[in-house]
Amino acid sequence: MLIISFIINLKSIIKRKSLFKFHRWIGLVAALWLFLLGITGIFLDHDEWRWLRQTEVPESWLSSSMMRYLPATVMRFIAVDKNDSNNWIGGSERGLWATDDRGKNWKKLEFPDGQHPQVTRFAKMKILDEQIIILATDDGLWIMNGFGNDLKRLALEGKYINMVSPGSNNDEIIGVENFERIFRMNINQPSNLEFLNLDKINITGLPENVTMYKFLFDLHFGYGIFSRQFSTWINDFGGIALMILSMTGFLSWYYQRKWRRNKDKAPLKDRRIFLSKSFYRMHAPIIGILGIIPILYLSVTGILFNHILTFINWGEKIDIDRSDLPYVWRYESLKGEIDQVVTYPDNPKKMSISTRYGVLHTKDGGKNWAKDPITGSERGQLFRTDDHVFYSNNLRQFFTKKDGDDKWHKMSGIPTIVYDAEFSNQGLMIKNSRGFFREKENYDFEMDEMKHPDLKAATLYLFMIEIHTGNAIHPQFKWISDIFTIMGIMMVITGPILWWRRKW
């Protein structure tokens, strides 16, 4: 209502003709960059799209700041041969690799029938002295019976599985389908799946307040209004609106200019009127009005994220009452909120999950959940390896605990969030975006000489980040991006003022 009131009052102050010229020229100046922000924003909303993660571009296309994220795209998840610590398997959205000389040389492992799914997690198990590796992918579950053996389909073909972990029993796994449903499955009976009912739940210990930074972060990245899926669709519409507004605005100006300069070659009057009205109707009353809210919040938050360090320092100091936020923040359902899940030996009702509020625990199979008081209230990575559970987040909080321990142990010497860990005869190893780290003592780590495969290429997804942030042009292009984005905000405000009089 405040926006509408502001628009109506401003309309009476500013002359329409002058406002139209202002609207048109800032649009022409900013159109190309706003179009790029729109299309790249849509791509970045959908990191599940396989082609974005697996299409390769030259490494040289990335800035030095983005290059540090490249190892994580090559390898996030690891498994070691318990009989020979020189043998390792590593995987990510880009595929699978194996080494028999501790990372000096890697060879690519192929899925059957030319399949090339994105690997989203390993579940490493030992059954009757045989190592079993279960792979969660964007195309269901796969199994490797015996270390380094061929892969076979296991279950849930065509489903996006974002998590898999060893179950509470020896031959059982637990996992998450598309961030929505937790399932259990005996690997010897893959057709018998048990899904947990998480619609009616009770959660205690959630923070009463949410920081401004956290709320705006989730809002910009498609988690903050409704469910993950619907919020992403709204963000997508904002990106589409930016693209269409940029194109229709430019085409309207271009053709009218062309017709004025070449009157003899211009279409008939009726045709010109039809085209002009078509451009206008698509530009203003359809896309322009419907796209006001998503374009505004994406633009404002985008400017804030261009200056992330200042934004964090400011945003972390401001609290918002959780009851004042959209429905999705009240957590009356866990659908769309489950990033990872782990369970505990011989206790199928005891589970832990990672969510936007950090780690939650249940002891009754999912009816009642309690917020972990130690691990913070941020999204992170939660996983199990052997008899240890690990959790870390982007605030450089790194934790682990052994089965039977009541308290988390802090891990140190680690620069970035931990994706996976393995125990070998050389000790505990972890994998993060910088590489491999080995434990020195008491969960204190140092970088190991082991290397991931050197692919000499980056992913299209990383390059889209470079374009979206402006780093592909220059590290300080963010200031120019801010100016163009402010122009976009001004167009979103002035556009409805112009439309108010003309309507259709």
Describe the structure.
It is elongated, with a radius of gyration of 26 Å. The protein has a 5-stranded mixed β-sheet with strand order 14-20-19-18-17, with no helix packed on it. A 4-stranded antiparallel β-sheet has the order 2-3-4-5. Helix 2 (16-45) crosses helix 12 (478-502) and helix 9 (292-305) packs antiparallel against helix 12. It has a domain at 2-41 and 210-328 and 477-502. The chain has 504 residues and is α+β, with helices and mostly antiparallel strands. It has 12 helices and 29 strands. Helices cover 35% and strands 30% of the residues.
Short description:
This protein is an alpha+beta fold. 35% of the residues lie in helices and 30% in strands.
The residue-averaged pLDDT reads 89
Q: Terminal Cα separation, in Å?
A: 22 Å
Structural class: alpha+beta
What is the helix content? 25-40%
Q: How big a fraction of the residues is strand?
A: 25-35%
Radius of gyration: 26 Å
Q: How would a crystallographer describe the biggest sheet?
A: 5 strands, mixed
Q: Please count the helical segments.
A: 12
Number of strand elements:
29
Shape: elongated
